[in-house]
Amino acid sequence: MRAMRILPFLFALAVLLGPVAAWADAGEVRFAQGDVHILRAGGKAESAVRGTRLHEGDTIVTGAGGYAQLTMVDDAIVAVRPDTRLKVETYRYSGKVDGSEKGVWGLVRGGFRTLTGWIGRNNKDAYAVRTPTATIGIRGTDHEPMYIPPPAAGEIPLGEPGTYNKVNSGQTYIQTGGGRLELGANQVGFAAARGDAPPVRLAQMPSFMKVTPPLRPVGSGPRDKERQERQERGDILPQRPPPPPALVAMALAEAPVPLLPPALLPPVQAGTVDPRYIPPGSTPAPLGYVAAGGDLSPGVLDNGALVVGNPLENGAVLLGPAGLPLAVGTSGGFNYSSDGAPVVDAGTTTVGSHTINWGIYAGGTISDNAGVRHPQYFFFMGGGIASTPATLAATLPGAGATLSFSSVGGYTKPITESGAVGGSVGSILVELKNVGGNIMVSKYNLGVTDALGRTWSTSMPAPVPLGAFVIGGTGTPNLSVGCAGCTASTGTGNARGAPFGNPVPLGAITSYSLQAGTSGVVGAVLAK
User: Which of 61, 64, 401, 420 is the most exposed place for a label (fewest CB within 10 A)?
Assistant: First the structure.
């Protein structure tokens, strides 16, 4: 229906501009499947078939089941995803690199994958992909841009609206009015659709980008014959790297899914970290890895937790050499990238065979449902392998059975609402209880003294299901808070975390966010 509405406008525009002798030849359709058509610059729409020529000003439009592969005049290969509108804004190549070459794509919706040709390889500044929110440039590459527009009324978007770019090889950048982000091989960048938000590097590849369009040369058309003739003449041609191997997913079926009784778990899903898309210098945290943390940002005191491999949130953590995260992300839209921020607090300890690391970054970038922000501090604690449902059931076999962790094994320094870092965690009690066959967190008692000398205490008014304790449940506070020296003597708070250790639970990694009046404090603590 959108195409039908735009046709009269394009036709009228063509009449006003007068006749055009010819649009520059840009390439051809090498393969088309399903609903694929070309919207010509003059206003005419026609079905795309093998051999259909492409010109400047044409728009390739694919339907929900449509897919197309294009070969451009500079030997670039382009695979167009379903539900895409991709315009050939400018594409000029005379057969030699003389400064006149230029390739500019306009991505209105959807996505594509491309192996750049002569233009991108020899005059990188002459190549660009433009979306409504960003510009993507290259440094010689196999990359996959995607744009998700803000949804229409009643429409459910594929993911958070904005511009995405996945780099398979080479280098690219994403630039907005808010800044520029360089991306290397095996990295994914994102620029939100809101205003001039700075682009961010994602901790994990979005699930909707995991299916990569293949780039397969088709060797019997006129372009292939021309290429062969040029080779026989001794011309130097751009080399087409072989397409990458099929994506390799981590299988959750081989690892514990630790958070909820098996009967309540959704079907096993593929993992969220693909071994081919791990930034250099980082290591993916193993399945079952427990993490808790949060941030202080303007107007935000936040905390959360995740277990890598839990299909309820598909969280991923990419660790640096010191065991602290370079990036953290979940399928719910939360992403943190340290972006080289300095570490102002760090520690490590071992509990049994489990190594636990913690620290505070002074900066970084967060993207979540509140938008993009640069936190003043991001705190983190992670390590161990989460206790499985079988382990917890064996440890708490009957209704009323309890398990308590009551020693402070380590903590990030408390962070106040004003950005004061310091103080201590004096006490912790995390109690798990079998309530009618369900594992609940029945107590969470915490004693904190912050850098301003205020003392905080907590209690848990009602038991919280373990699964909700990890992923946040409804997001409502689960703690009652008392504070001496704050602007109010009572308040509320949130605690998140998970137990670790198999075949015997050894401890719990947790984060907290406490509020009393306008006073607040956040941090992470190890209970053992």
Answer: 64
**Residue 196 shares a structural domain with residue 291:** no
Distance separating alpha carbons of residues 104 and 129, to the nearest angstrom: 6
CA dihedral in degrees (227, 228, 232, 237; nearest 10)? 40
> pLDDT tens across 351-362, in order?
999 999 999 999
| DSSP reduced 3-state for 165 | strand
Residue 479 neighbours by CB under 8 Å, 6+ apart: 444, 458, 459, 460, 461, 492, 493, 494, 495, 512, 514
Same domain, 168 and 278: no
Termini Cα distance of the chain:
61
Q: 191-203 pLDDT, tens per residue?
A: 887 667 788 888 7
**CA of 117: how far to CAs of 72, 184, 257, in Å?**
8, 19, 45
Distance from C-alpha of 278 to C-alpha of 308, rounded to nearest angstrom: 15
Q: How many domains does the structure of the chain reveal?
A: 2
Owning domain of residue 369: 253-527
CA dihedral 465→470→475→476, nearest 10 degrees, is 50
Strands 102-115 and 127-130: parallel
Residue 507: Cβ within 10 Å count: 25
CA distance linking residue 497 with residue 468, whole number of Å: 9
User: For residue 139, how far is the Cα from the chain centroid?
Assistant: 22
**Cα distance between residue 325 and residue 52, in whole Å:** 49
**Full-model pTM:** 0.60
**Within a 13 Å sphere around the CA of 337, how many CA atoms are in the beta-carbon half?**
20
Phi, psi dihedral angles at 134 (to 5 degrees): -160, 165
Give the residues across from 188 on adjacent strands.
Answer: 166
Q: At 31, which CATH number?
A: 2.60.120.1440
Give the end of a domain, one of 175, 200, 232: 232
